Every structure is written in structure tokens, then in C-alpha cells.
Request: fold
Amino acid sequence: MLKNRLVFLFPLILFIALAIYFVLGLERAKEVGNDFVPSALIGQPFPNMNLAPLKQEKPGLMTSDLKGKISIVNVFASWCVPCRAEHPMIKKLSKVDDLNVVGLNYKDKEEDALSFLAELGDPYHMIGSDPKGKAAIDLGVYGVPETYVVDQQGIIRFRHVGPLQLRHLDDDILPLIKKLSQ
Amino acid sequence: MTKKKIIYKKQIVAYVAAFSRSNLKITPCRVIHLGFAAMILTLALFHNLAAHAVEPDEILDNPVLEQRARDLSKELRCLVCQNQSIDDSDADLARDLRILVRERLVEGDSDEEVLDYLVKRYGHYVLLNPPMNLQTLVLWGGPILIFGAGTILVYIWFARRTRRINAQEEADIEEGIIAPKGLTIEEEARLAQILGQVTQENEAPKGQSSKLANGND
Reply:
């Protein structure tokens, strides 16, 4: 009789096992940056690219330049409305010590990008131009804006899809930068 | 076979027989069913000609490569729309990826190499057909297994229960607690008497009542 009672517990135990499996999966997805589509390049080196500079006075985006310091690579475009909204956050990041703030100008016209930066401010130390979006495909970019955190060895550690808000800085980006600095 | 199954089988056989004898009555319900079947059949036969987002300037000169590109595009997810393939989607990124697929094919990549190229950059999510590995097999097979196990358990439980109830009933009949199934002779006679009375009452007022009595064949 007791055996019959135990059999009834089996579905409950199975459910709890599945629930744990699914919750663990969700937690793992959270780690990857709260993306709908997690980046396939987390833990991989930043892809090789050599993008022409947008402005003469600043360097373009060369992958070898991303080593030595922690870099924030921000994919933006002048035609992208959320990029305007997140721009103050990028400016905030440019004030962080020892942090390379790099812009990847995605599918944009030079004049438009320049007036975007003139109007909203230019927080970038380097800006690379990707007018056809080909280099961005190597990076796995599927929309604008996107922000990547690259460590001192040039390995991609984190990707944020969508405009950066203060809480993303506080919860995800700044703690990661701190961790990588140690 | 259970009774119900026999009845269904007879109905289907009658349906098919009537159809082959051209004896099938055309009812509105059957017309609608035929309409749906025709729709689905048309879609199944012609869906390859369905609308797509490929623009003329993307089409490769080599028709073999172009067909490979179309087939591969249908397997790749547009990450912007996420429920469409890049072959269907009008998004900018979809166009970029379509062109990329064609460039890789012109370079001589195999189908697998093209898909790998994209998975390397965008992850397995870019494939509309998910990869079959151990993890996904568990997800695919899991529900079916659980459902199957559940069905078996319910069946066993039911069978045991019925057997127990029948055994209990037989024991009670032996001991005389309840009457055996079926009617005794006296009860049969009494039943016939009651039924006889009811038929007499029905035949008295003619017209409507006889229709009621004989309505269901």
C-alpha cells in the first residue's frame, strides 16, 4: 500500500527536477547579458577588423588596438533613435578611468554620423566606420545599438543589446569592468 | 475491437463506398471540408512559389548556386523578425545575410560551411531547424516519454481498479448481498407487461405519436 502512495509522488518529483533544470537554464541565460539572442562570441576574441576612422583626428577601429585596456565597443548609427537615448550613458562611460570607449558606426553616412556627434557630444576614443555593415556581421551584430565589453586580452566578455540605461551600467557593465581590472 | 471502433470503421467504409459509387450526397458541411482540403493541398504543392523577399539585384547568375542560396536562406532565421527566415523577411539584416550567403556560395563553400559560418557569428539560434544534440533530444523526447509513461500508468491503474471492483461484485453476489445481473423470470414478465401498456397508450392518439414512435431508424 505504501508503494502505491510513493508512486503518486513520482510526478511531483519529476516536476521539481524539470523546474530546477529550467531555472538553471534561465539563470545561465541571464549571465549572458539579458539578451533575447545571446552573443555567440562570448569568450571568443574580438573579430579581426580594420575600420577606417570616422574623424581624421581620431583613430579608426583596429582590433589590435583593443588590447592592453578594457574596451567598450558601442555599435551606433545616426539614424538610430535609441542610440540618441543611450548616448548620455556612453558619455558617462567615457569618464571611467582606464577604459577605452570605442564607436562602431554602423551603416551610416559620414556627414550624418559627424553631425550626430557634433549635436550630442563625442565620447569615443576611437571610431570605426562600417558603412556596409560587413564587419558588424563578423561581430554578430543584429541590431543597433549594441554594446560589447572586451577585456585586456581582446576577448569579448559581455554584450548588451538595446539602449544602455543607468541600471545596466550599475548592474552589469561597471561591476564587470571592476572585476576585469583586478 | 470495441463497439465504438466497429461503428466508426463501418461509417468510414460506407462513406468511401458511396463516394466510389458516385452516390455521395453533397452537403454544405462536406463542401466546406473539401474546400479546406483543396486549400491545404494547393499550399502543399505550390508553397515553393510563395512570396519571398529576395530582390532582383541579389539573384546570382548561376541558377544552381541561386537555388542553393534560396534553400539555405529558408533555414536561416531573420534575427530581427525572429519568426521569419531571411528568405521571407524584408529587414535590412535579412538582405545583408542573404547577400552574405550568396557570397560564401560563390567562394565555393559547401552548404554546411555556409551554415557554420553564420552559426559561428550568431549562435545556433540563427538556424530555424535546431541542431539535434543530446540536450535538444531530451527536450523533443521528454514530453512524449512523460505522456507515454502517464498513459501507461493511468491504464494500469484503471485496469487494476476495474478488476478489483468486478472481483468485489462477484464476491458480493456469491454471498447474496446484491442480486445477480439481469432480470429474474418474474421481473421479465412484469417488464413485458409494462411495455405492453406503454405501446397501447402510444397507439391511441394517431398522427404525431406514431411519428414519434417510428422516428429513429
